[in-house]
Amino acid sequence: MGIFDIFKGGNKNEKELVSLADDIYTKFHATCDVLEKVKSKTSSTDLIKQLNLKGVYEDKYGTNLREIDLDIGNGHIFSKIENGDHSMSNFQKYNFTITGIQDYSGLSLNFDYEKKKRQIDLLDFSKLFGKMSNPINQARLDSKKLTADGKKLYELIHSKGGFKK
């Protein structure tokens, strides 16, 4: 950092990433706290009410009877609670994921009813799957490459702790 860098106010992109990381971290752990206490016969409506009390809100346009999409506040971050047994009235079995796409590709946070383990991963799908023989599939895979912002978000969120290895 140079002497005049103190007058620049910092990297705006860095500030946005820090703010997004804080938001993801807070909403992920608040959602996990609610899910850990889910009892049998918990409907999607009941679960949404409990999440709202913790400051986590649904994306009303993406939610259906078997999935609840949560609003993270960024169009490149998807947050979803899937009903594990596909019941329309009981969310006792679930899988909760937050996934980064495009600018934040590679970021993945998971929590499920069996393990009750809060997990964060950094995934590079292009390395996981290798080369595709079909050019269309290869183009789709190339769009899922690990990004610098995805890696930075991972580092910011992981550094806050609260994840089991």
How does this model look, in words?
- By secondary structure, the protein is α+β, with helices and mostly antiparallel strands.
- It has one domain.
- It has five helices and five strands, in the order ααβββββααα.
- The protein has a five-stranded antiparallel sheet.
- Helix 1 (12-36) crosses helix 5.
- It is globular and about 45 Å long.
- It starts with 11 loop residues before the first helix and ends in a 7-residue tail after the last helix.
- The model is unreliable at 1-12 (pLDDT under 50).
Write the layout of secondary structure elements.
Layout: H1 12-36, H2 44-53, E1 67-70, E2 77-83, E3 94-100, E4 107-112, E5 119-122, H3 125-129, H4 135-142, H5 148-158
Antiparallel strand pairs: 1-2, 2-3, 3-4, 4-5
Helix pairs in contact: 1-5
Structure summary:
With about 160 residues, the protein is of the alpha+beta class. The protein has five helices and five strands; from the N terminus they run H-H-E-E-E-E-E-H-H-H. It has helices at about 10-35, 45-55, 125-130, 135-140, 150-160; strands at about 65-70, 75-85, 95-100, 105-110, 120.
